[in-house]
Specification:
Elements (H helix, E strand, L loop, with lengths): L1 H9 L10 E7 L7 H9 L4 E6 L8 H9 L5 E4 L2 H4 L3 H13 L3 E4 L4 E2 L3 H10 L2 H6 L1
Parallel strand pairs: 1-2, 1-3, 3-4
Antiparallel strand pairs: 4-5
Pfam family, one: Resolvase
InterPro entries: Recombinase_CS (IPR006118), Resolv_N (IPR006119), Resolvase-like_N_sf (IPR036162), SSR_resolvase (IPR050639)
Protein name: Resolvase/invertase-type recombinase catalytic domain-containing protein
């Protein structure tokens, strides 16, 4: 399983990424505002933005599910920062590997990670071995 995740993260990106940039934003409580995140996603060129007002610990995030369902091969999921998407490193790697298997790119604005580039794929490949130590 770990080898498959690593292979998925290092695999070549589709020759032409012609799809849309799709944003996902999240705040932890209903009192917090999404404005700053949505402005950053709009500035990055996202044509559609999904947003949750839920704790990251909540595994049932309706808007994240909708965003993942909306994405098509060639699209790229864009998040303001990694902690807005995933609850843990293992969760992040699982989500990104699933996106790659589907032919979908991933970009985090704050950390400047972009799996549509060889450097971005390498960064995620370096993360992947940590799964084996957390799974034991």
């Amino acid at each position: 399983m770990i080898r498959q995740v690593a292979d998925d993260l290092l695999g070549a990106e589709p020759a032409v990424l012609t799809g849309a940039l799709v944003g996902y934003a999240r705040v932890s409580t209903r009192d917090q505002r999404l404005d700053r995140q949505t402005r950053a996603l709009e500035a990055a060129g996202c044509i559609r933005i999904f947003a949750d007002k839920l704790s990251g610990k909540n595994t049932d995030r309706e808007e994240l599910t909708k965003a993942l369902d909306y994405l098509r091969p060639g699209d790229t999921l864009v998040v303001p920062s990694l902690d807005r998407l995933a609850r843990s490193l293992a969760d992040l790697i699982t989500i990104v590997a699933d996106l790659r298997r589907r032919g979908v790119g991933f970009r985090s604005l704050k950390e400047a990670l972009d799996t549509t580039t060889p450097g971005g794929r390498l960064v995620f490949h370096v993360f992947a071995p940590s799964l084996s130590s957390s799974a034991s």
